[in-house]
Structures are given as C-alpha cells and as structure tokens.
Amino acid sequence: DTGVSQNPRHKITKRGQNVTFRCDPISEHNRLYWYRQTLGQGPEFLTYFQNEAQLEKSRLLSDRFSAERPKGSFSTLEIQRTEQGDSAMYLCASSPGHGNTGELFFGEGSRLTVL
Amino acid sequence: AQTVTQSQPEMSVQEAETVTLSCTYDTSESNYYLFWYKQPPSRQMILVIRQEAYKQQNATENRFSVNFQKAAKSFSLKISDSQLGDTAMYFCAFMRGQGGSEKLVFGKGTKLTVNP
User: Fold this and answer.
1) Chain B interface includes A48 (CB < 8 A)
2) Residues from chain A contacting residue B93 (CB–CB below 8 Å)
3) Which residues does chain B have within 8 Å of residue A101's beta carbon, measured at their own beta carbons?
4) How far is the C-alpha of B54 from the C-alpha of A84, rounded, in Å?
5) DSSP E strands, B1-116
6) Which of B104, B12, B13 is nearest to B50 (CA)?
7) Contact call for B33 and A3, based on CB within 8 A
C-alpha cells in the first residue's frame, strides 16, 4: 500500500500523559499536513511541512503540541500533558508540493481518547 | 479569515436519484480553490472534485458536478445516479490561491446516506 500511513490508529490515555503519533506520507510527496477533527466538525488545520521545514502553525497548536519531520519523510505529532479536550481524530495528509492545487492525500487518522 | 458553511448536517437520497449538497463560503480573496472531499465511514478522506475560482465553467467528474456561483459565494455539489457507495460525510473546503497558505478550511460536513 503506497498511501498515507498513520500509527497508532487508536490511542487511549489518561489525562496528563504524553502521546506521540506517526505519519508516513506518500514517498514522493514533499508536503505534509496535520489536521484535527472532533466529532461533528470538519478537519481543522494544525500545521504543515515542506520537506523538513515547518512552514505554518495554527494557533490551535498550543505549546503542549509539537510536530517534527526531521528528514523530510515521516512526521511525528507529540502531545504533552494531555487534556480531555485533546480527544479527537488526528489526520495526516500529504501532497506533491510544486504544482499542487489543493488535492491532499489523507491517512485514516489516529483517534485519541483522553480519560 | 475564510469561513465555509454547510447548512445541511444530514441528507438522504434513494439509490439512482439525484441529490444536491449546499456550501457557502466567505472570503475577500480573488484567487482561490474550492473542493468537495468525501469521508466514507472508517475510511480516509478523498477528493471528489475541485474548482478554480478563476474558471467560469463548472467542474464535473463523472456523476459529480458543482454549481459555482462566485458572486453569491456558493458552491454546491450535485451527485447524479446516487450509489450505495456514495454514503459518506461530504466536506466542502476552501484554499487560497498559489502564493497563499496551503491550508484547507473545511466546513462542518454533510452526512449523506444513500438508501437502497
């Protein structure tokens, strides 16, 4: 399968714990995006990378959230000191970058439940 | 800031019939793109159709077509000959044109159920 891969698919954690999600984009895509989707809402933009450079971060991305893409391939999204309000689906998407006109290729998401 | 509004939380249609999903948006940009994305149950989101704002002709992709009314800032999706596999959440989305932010701004979605 050469699509966008996200792990883990489901994560249940207790409030205050740290969690990390991984995203492996389509191999030739140099742009990678993270979105958050809560129940009954559309995805909300969190951040995006072009290669290893993080080019934009949403104000939704508080200081407890950090994302990296160290070698311009896979990316990680870490949430420190989780809160119940962090419960959501975290979606990763990638795109070819140059010449792209908005078609993002999404993974199946990582669902976080904070107890 | 751009906003996208989908006023129909849920819709249903009989198989083989036609259904139209509504979307309005607000922006001061002149160069932008509009999209409809489909999210089937427990599956990843995929692009259904894309419209460039500078194009007057409405986009079509097989059974899917849009009615793009730029002055009214309206962008509806028509699904013809509905199939059971069309059952999904449908999200309308906006993106600023080249040179702007790459991020998509999504509406809240419309849950479409196609009944046999």
Assistant:
1) yes
2) 42, 102
3) 33, 50, 52, 98
4) 43
5) 3-5, 10-14, 19-21, 24-26, 32-39, 46-52, 60-61, 64-69, 74-79, 88-96, 105-106, 110-115
6) B104
7) no
Map tokens 């906006």 to a residue: B94
Contact B102 A31 (CB under 8 A): yes
Residues of chain B contacting residue A91, judged by C-beta atoms under 8 Å apart: 45
Mutating which of B32, B92, B98, B103 best tests the A interface, going by the most A Cβ atoms within 10 A? B103
User: d(Cα B77, Cα B92) in Å, to the nearest integer?
Assistant: 9
Residue type, B105: V
**Average pLDDT, stretch A53-65?**
90
The strand pairing partners of B40, in sequence order, are none
**Res. B96: pLDDT tops 90:** no
Query: Does residue A112 register a pLDDT over 90?
Result: yes
Pairwise pLDDT comparison (A85 vs A99), residue with the higher score: A85
CB–CB contact A42 B107 (8 Å) = yes
Token pair 């990296």: residue: A68
> Can you give the length of chain B in residues?
116
The pLDDT of residue B101 is 60
The average confidence (pLDDT) of chain B is 94
Please write the tens of the pLDDT for every residue from B43-70: 899 999 999 999 989 999 999 999 999 9
Cis peptide before A8 (omega within 30 of 0): yes
